[in-house]
Amino acid sequence: MKYLLKMVLPGFVLLLAGCSAFVDVAAPPQLTGEEYVFSSDETAEQSVRGLYSKMGQQDNFSDCMFSLLLSLMSDDLVSTAASPTRDVFQNNSLLPGNTMVTNNFWRKGYEYIYHANACLQGLQNSTGVSAARNKQLTGEMHLMRAFLYYHMVNLFGGVPLQTGIDYAVNKELPRASEKEVWDLIIADAVAATQELGSYVAGDVKTRPCKEAALAFLSRVQLYRQHWQQAIDAATKVINSRMYVIEENLSGVFLTTSKEVIWQLGFNSEIPMIMQATTYIPASALLRPQLTATASLMAAFEAGDMRQKTWLRTVIVGGKNYYYPFKYISRAIPNITEKICFMRLAEVYLNRAEAYLHLGNITAAVADVNLIRKRANLPALPDTISAASLEKTIANERRVEMMFEWGHRWYDLKRTSQANAVLGKEKGSYWQPSDQLLPIPDEEIQLNPNLVQNPGYQ
């Protein structure tokens, strides 16, 4: 943690570093860094945009690599060639000194959390930012902090709960309980739903709106098994009628997608989607570096258009290799695609699962059938048993959300299926303690109040 804080402590003006127009602007001598950064709507806006700019770079917490590594840890993706970096994730054999976990998950996560905290503090103390803009930007940062802690708690379990930017406090924080982290996530997400304005047709989707916060809240409430709250949040998104299921599967991840609720915009330095260059072979004669597992391929029902559209196949050496094909543009700059944070298909699946747990089979079936119809699959009957519907929803989540933000990895854990599924998939490599990543050794050495996760001592 000391490493991170040394990197970000020099001043609030660094919050602008992601926005080139402000890099060389110094605070007037009569103002402190915080006072200057939040002295007007314009400077506050640039500070908040700085976080999105950071996340739009190829730094592995928020780009293709994040989804890639978590897919390797689950049962969706496999590497076709030996790679020391990837193999330890695929074989669930990580050690506390792993540099990817240390630098790209833990430290990047807390760097972004620090940025969100600094913005929240600056906005709270500001007298120069208009009330309307302050409320909107505060909502954005509450949602971003919730989003970041959501990933941290799913990756590591209970983590230090930093809500301020005081180095003396943050450097010695112990791990909070998982419940405490989830409570903050929900509180921040709820606050964001109250602070953010509703989406207006024509608005950019790279900035979150009220419906984005509600969509995320539906996911979080589902994870916490707050079934009615998950339904309520999802229903508000659906009833807004601002989003519809994109009938054309090839259009789901485009900037023009009617389904996307919230996208990640890339800054000018990294103007491309890394998914295409990582997953798609440069030539039809080359074997893909990463391919779908046999179990993922078996999860597709006959005729499922998601298999035909979101996967591609190449034959090398007489063998079929299926590789991800959700993001396909190699163009520089890529103006047609953006990484998706939240989309309507997930919201329907969140609500369907919550309906199921409350015994409303008819409503759950209706939501699932909307997703199946788009995939060209037959409708489920209302007479389906609860047990069969539960398996179907889990499978729909898998094939619909494959290779996106670790959904499969997180779903296996939250539904207590990880040991059964991954024990079979990974064999002797799998241990129950593999469900959490190790706390980085370097962080424990810097903060003796941190306790290592079981299985990594």
How would you explain this protein's 3D organization?
The protein has helices at about 1-10, 35, 40-55, 65-75, 85-90, 100-125, 130-155, 165-170, 180-195, 210-225, 225-240, 275-280, 295-300, 305-310, 345-355, 360-375, 385-400, 405-415, 420-425, 440-445, and strands at about 75-80, 260-265, 290, 310-315, 320-325, 340-345. Helix content is about 50%, strand content about 5%. With about 450 residues, it is mainly alpha-helical. The strands form three sheets. A two-stranded antiparallel ribbon has the order 1-3. It has a two-stranded antiparallel ribbon with strand order 2-6. It has a two-stranded antiparallel ribbon with strand order 4-5. It has a single domain, classed as Serine Threonine Protein Phosphatase 5, Tetratricopeptide repeat (Alpha Horseshoe). A hairpin with a 2-residue loop joins strand 4 and strand 5 (about 320-325). The protein is globular and about 65 Å long. Residues about 5-10 and about 15-30 have low confidence and may be disordered. Helix 15 packs antiparallel against helix 16 (about 360-375). It contains 20 helices and six strands. Belongs to the SusD family. It comes from Filimonas effusa. It is found in: Cell outer membrane. This is RagB/SusD family nutrient uptake outer membrane protein. Its main location: membrane.
